[in-house]
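quick q for whoever's on today - can somebody do inverse folding on this one?? i tried earlier but teh output was garbage lol. tokens:
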């Protein structure tokens, strides 16, 4: 089934930016600059628009590797949303909040946020197309309608959805300028040395494992703040607040401290990062949950705060630890 997105106006969306604060020593690449300044557009979406010459610098088409300088004008033409040929599926959703321009979803562990390579059904987008009846923003591209930010497949919790492009831009800007606050709960392997701390380490693609992220010198600025909530013999429950929102940020940052997320099959190379460890603790995925989301409503400017209780498997694992089990 096909669904039109934001079909009230079948016109191109025009965005203009004036380049500011470009480093003279190493001017930023066009694609990197846009990814940092237009969080509502994915990097792959930006690269496609550049290839289609829908992004111009001072009126001229350039390559994505073009180095920008202060004062240059970037013109972005985003074509009208495509018709989605993605199946709407009646998948149960925990809708925490919904109105005419946005929704807050409590995503379960194991659900992929949007279709991608090898995954075309069972995603949050498939469910949204059914429950929202196609009323979703289209600025993120045909396979990401409404998706302002993502959660990993095996991470549970709160996620914001935009129903129109205006709301999408507003919510994306809040995440970019840090006015939207996100708080996660994570169960980590081992015992952290400090009660609280700040991890300020750049994150980029792993140099050899292209599906993974890593701490790399030329990566994107990434900052996470953590605070210990509860200590067990071999584990630590922490609260993590994000200043930035890089792919796999919490998982990579915590692993860099030597205390990876329990049940993380990618970045946890220890005994607690296996499927058998998950099974032993009764976990269905990794022990990472988006527990709190605070933002400004994109229409009426009211402050909204949402909370999501831990999923049953995570909560029960903690209870067993509190009673000296699973240690």
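ok took a stab at it. sequence:
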């Amino acid at each position: 089934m096909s669904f039109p997105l934001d079909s009230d106006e079948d016109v191109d969306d025009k965005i203009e930016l004036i380049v500011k604060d470009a480093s003279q020593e190493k001017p930023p690449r066009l694609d990197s600059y846009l990814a940092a300044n237009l969080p509502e557009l994915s990097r792959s979406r930006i690269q496609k628009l550049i290839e289609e010459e829908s992004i111009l610098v001072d009126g001229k088409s350039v390559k994505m590797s073009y180095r920008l300088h202060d004062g240059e004008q970037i013109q972005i033409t985003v074509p009208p949303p495509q018709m989605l040929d993605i199946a709407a599926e009646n998948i149960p959703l925990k809708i925490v909040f919904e109105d005419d321009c946005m929704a807050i979803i409590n995503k379960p562990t194991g659900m992929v946020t949007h279709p991608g390579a090898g995954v075309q059904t069972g995603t949050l987008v498939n469910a949204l197309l059914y429950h929202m009846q196609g009323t979703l923003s289209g600025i993120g591209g045909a396979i990401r309608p409404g998706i302002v930010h993502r959660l990993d497949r095996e991470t549970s919790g709160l996620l914001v959805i935009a129903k129109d492009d205006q709301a999408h831009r507003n919510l994306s800007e809040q995440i970019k300028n840090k006015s939207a606050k996100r708080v996660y709960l994570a169960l980590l392997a081992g015992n952290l040395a400090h009660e609280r701390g700040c991890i300020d380490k750049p994150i980029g693609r792993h140099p050899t494992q292209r599906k993974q992220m890593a701490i790399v010198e030329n990566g994107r600025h990434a900052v996470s703040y953590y605070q210990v909530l509860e200590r067990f013999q071999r584990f630590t429950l922490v609260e993590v607040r994000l200043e930035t929102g890089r792919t796999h940020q919490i998982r990579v940052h915590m692993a860099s401290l030597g205390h990876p997320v329990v049940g993380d099959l990618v970045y946890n190379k220890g005994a607690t990062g296996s499927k058998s460890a998950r099974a032993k603790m009764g976990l269905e995925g990794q022990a990472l949950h988006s527990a709190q989301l605070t933002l400004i409503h994109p229409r009426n400017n009211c402050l909204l705060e949402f909370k999501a209780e831990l999923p049953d498997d995570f909560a029960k694992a903690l209870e067993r630890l509190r009673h000296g089990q699973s240690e």
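fwiw The chain has seven helices and 15 strands. also The two ends are 49 Å apart (CA to CA). so keep that in mind when u check it
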